[in-house]
Design a protein that fits this description.
This protein has helices at 5-15, 48-51, 60-72, 83-94, 107-122, 139-143, 148-151, 169-175, 199-212, 282-295, 298-316, 337-348, 370-383; strands at 27-31, 34-37, 42-45, 101-104, 126-130, 161-164, 180-185, 188-189, 195-196, 215-219, 243-246, 257-261, 321-326, 329-333, 350-351, 353-354, 359-362. A hairpin with a 5-residue loop joins strand 8 and strand 9 (195-196). By secondary structure, it is α/β, with parallel strands linked by helices. It starts with a helix and ends with a helix. Among the domains are: 65-295, Type I PLP-dependent aspartate aminotransferase-like (Major domain) (Aspartate Aminotransferase, domain 2, 3-Layer(aba) Sandwich); 298-325 and 378-384, no CATH class.
Length: 384
Amino acid sequence: MPLGLTDLQALERDWVMPTYARQPVEFVRGEGCRLWDADGNEYLDFLAGISVAQIGHCHPALVEAIREQAGRLMHVSNLYYTEPAMRLAQRLAESSLGGKVFFCNSGAEASECAIKLARRHRRGGEVVVVTDGFHGRTYGALSATPQETKQEPFAPLVPGFKVVHRDDAAGLSDAVGEQTAAVLIEPIQGESGIHPIADDVLVAAREACDRHGALLIFDEVQCGMGRTGTLWAYEQTPARPDVMTVAKGLGGGLPIGACITSPEYADTFQKGDHGSTFAGGPVPCAAAHAVLDVVHDEAFLGEVREKGERLQAGLHDLPVTNVRGRGLMCAFDIDGAPELSTRLLIEQRLVVNATGPVTIRLEPPLTVSLEEIDDAVGRVGALL
């Protein structure tokens, strides 16, 4: 017989490192924007695995691409060629910065690659980051994540990171100098609660990097792959990066990340400088192709922008504050957010999450319908 929730909780208690505060639900099936738990209850998913299930759960084209590729070839390592990886590199580069791509398995690994590439280019140097940024939990990425609660237990960290307030354009400009290897910034901060970085800050970063020969790196792990209503979030800003990191929604549910360069920095790494055993495997690359086939379409992206406007308009009608975001990357503030997210899950069957004590984050699959958006807003309203 299948294990029940209490059985799974016992297994977790005895055998799983206690790094997550899991909600008391076991999901067993998904389709589109819907999830079902082990008891058959249906939920409306407005988190998408934290901006991962970009085209919904079990999209038929994605499932078929994975099934077909897994039935032919799953892994051979990067010592040999496979077509899905080579073609995916071309698609990602041509749709963005025009340089070259390094594949990895996660957003944190993409951050590590970008940091190493910048220091390889400058033979060392500082990396300037901004407050409330989040770039991952491996040591380099964690050192670039200036949040004391995440960093303090793991000191000493990797040296050479300088922190500037995320709203301080002049301070950021002053922080960049001849000793700077890169500025690393999320154009829309995700894990800290969906905060778009102001245009003047992004412009200051671009101009300072140009003056001093530093690299401007945009972390689009959460805000890329159509999430904001353009394929890449930087397309809606006045600044173009030299390097970009991508992951989460790229594989639609399978682990894959990428670090993409502009042509000027395409050959910074040399053979042996960096690597990854599983990165760029045929199956996750086949999945990424299937996701791009859906997402990289101007009509589809236009609908994402319209859906985002519908979602924010609905949230503005509720007794919440500071509704914000871009496209289908939204948040609002309300006291007791963690408790509210749990009650929405249990009482309203709506999947969202709290990114802090006062913030609720909503990131539904990009394939969500207008009716499902209205339904989700109605469920939040019903609870409030």
